[in-house]
Amino acid sequence: MKPDHRTNLFRYFSFSRLLLLSSLLISLPTFANPHEYILDNGLKLIVKQDHRSPVVVSQIWYKTGSIDELNGVTGVAHVLEHMMFKGTEKVPNGEFSKKIAAAGGRENAFTSYDYTGYYQQLHKRSLPMAMELESDRMRNLILTEEEFAKEIKVVMEERRLRTDDQARALLYEKMMAMAYQSHPYKNPIIGWMNDLENMRVEDAQEWYDRWYAPNNAILVVVGDVDAEEVFKLAQKNYGLIQKRPLLPIDARKPQTEPPQVGTKRITVKAPAELPYLIMGYHAPTIRNVTADWEPYALEILEGVLDGNASARLNKSLVRENQVANSASAGYGAMARGPGIFFLSAVPRAGKTVVELEQALRGEIEKIIKEGVTEEELARVKAQVVASHVYQRDSIYSQAMQLGRLESMGLSFRDIDTILEKLKAVTAEQIRDVTKKYFNDDSLTVAVLDPQPLEKKLPAKAPAGLRH
Q: Which of 8, 95, 225, 291 has a CA positioned 20 to 30 A from the CA of residue 121?
């Protein structure tokens, strides 16, 4: 799915931002609808009824992503996502997508650091077919060397197209590898090329056997359905699949990133028209929805810096001081691992990245010294509420909200608490987290040094690319 492999800086962290700052500022009655069921084999089912149109979205989320990979097989979670469309004995290669298309539906998949998901969106009458297809490949996938050899080439070409040949994406990848010393977030979701070149079908099979099980999955169904009927359908299709011995997220080995003890800097040379600067500060993510307060303050800070055209970075760096062509902030409060608060910008013609870095630092210093205004706080909180109103128009977005929360170890039942925590953020708390986390000892700076662009024909997407 496109969002998890976008080539901009915040392809992962802005995902979390969208979830928390636009879909979590929801009143409790909005989410009073979801019904939760647990099958005997551990599969969690969440159903949300939305009867505005005869459409349904069905998603299966596996609580595993690139965070669970080991050195030498980076990218295997994403590779298996591709292989999941290669067929079972009951549904041969290619038939899954053909059946969904014939029913007038659409389907795809996505892999992130923290989870992997598959979805179908189609007329409600086709939900039984979609669930039958999806449950079949949960345990009956056929992985062959022949199909793997074809698909791994597709993934390698995808990496070339979306990372190696995209200067900013390449800079982001190199920065993440430097910012994290030991945590798996240092590895790209799509994997390192050397690992892809040496990956075997047995690696994908092992990943499938280990993680693809009902007790490691969440089934989310949103649309014009009856919750009890969906539960019966889930029991029929998933109920007989055996659970597997594996640890839940909160019982897996902790992967704590060692404290950073000084500024890290990296310069990446790549063909590009303009320089690009990224500054990343290590920051906490939500571990205890009720007790934590810092991640909520950082979320509101992000909105103050980059909420809209009138936010501080755009107002000061782009419009007033004209040191940048563009400037952004990005942070995700929800993740299974540690977070980073990003600042990024493109210098205006005649300005250097050194001047740009100083300008970004200056905006942070203003907040530390002067704080933020009550007007800014009110604006940010109003924006996220308004954004949610738009989100509710889409049953797909509603399903994504539910699935992401549950797949990262939280619950849709936390939404009301998170809402109150965000509403309670004060100007003093924003100032406190800025002072605490925006320091040079936890900073990684990445600079894109643009090289001459080669004239070449536009790249074509590799055959079979699903994203």
A: 8
Predicted structure pTM score: 0.90
Residue 28 has pLDDT above 60, yes or no: no
| Count of Cβ atoms closer than 10 Å to residue 121 Cβ | 23
* DSSP character at residue 161: I
Is-contact 372 380, C-beta < 8 A? no
pLDDT (average), residues 416-422: 84
Tens of pLDDT, residues 64-84: 999 999 999 999 999 999 999
Q: Report the distance separating Cα 202 and Cα 315, nearest Å.
A: 53
Q: How many helices (H) and strands (E) does the chain have?
A: 16, 11
- SS3 sequence, 168-222? HHHHHHHHHHHHCCCCHHHCCCCCCHHHHHCCCHHHHHHHHHHHCCHHHEEEEEE
* Active site (catalytic) residues: 81
Cβ-in-10-Å burial (0-12, 13-18, 19+) of 162 comes to buried
CA distance 295 to 418: 10
